[in-house]
Amino acid sequence: RRRPHLKLSIDGQWVKSSRNSTAITIDPADGTLFARTQQAGETEVKQAIEAAHRAFATWGSSLASDREKA
């Protein structure tokens, strides 16, 4: 079974970390490798914070019924 190597989701895009570091996630049901997840570097953290600030105004003023679809 192929295990995914997950990128970072920032501002609606899947991006590769500049840090080139991963963490493993273990399936608690059987102790096997579930996925390898990239660890964000300083650049990606800044990008994610900027994206969150841009999204806040529209997300916060949208209806809950619209947010639950996201």
Structural write-up:
With 70 residues, the chain is α+β, with helices and mostly antiparallel strands. The protein has helices spanning 42-61, 64-67; strands at 5-6, 8-10, 13-15, 22-26, 33-38. The strands form two sheets. Strands 1-5-4 form a three-stranded mixed beta sheet, with no helix packed on it. Strands 2-3 form a two-stranded antiparallel sheet. The protein starts with a strand and ends with a helix. The mean pLDDT is 87.
What's a quick, concise take on this entry?
This protein has 70 residues and is of the alpha+beta class.
Features:
two-stranded antiparallel ribbon, 27% strand, 5 strands, alpha+beta
Structural topology:
Layout: E1 5-6, E2 8-10, E3 13-15, E4 22-26, E5 33-38, H1 42-61, H2 64-67
Parallel strand pairs: 1-5
Antiparallel strand pairs: 2-3, 4-5
Number of strands: 5
Strand content of the residues, in percent?
25-35%
Q: SS-based structural class? A: alpha+beta
Give the terminus-to-terminus CA distance: 29 Å
User: What low-confidence regions span 5 or more consecutive residues with pLDDT below 50?
Assistant: none
For the largest beta-sheet, the strand count, sense and barrel status come to: 3 strands, mixed
**Broad shape:** flat
**Spatial order of the strands forming the largest sheet:** 1-5-4
| Average predicted confidence as pLDDT | 87
What level of helicity do the residues show?
25-40%
Please work out how many helical segments DSSP would assign: 2
Secondary-structure element series:
EEEEEHH
Cα Rg = 16 Å
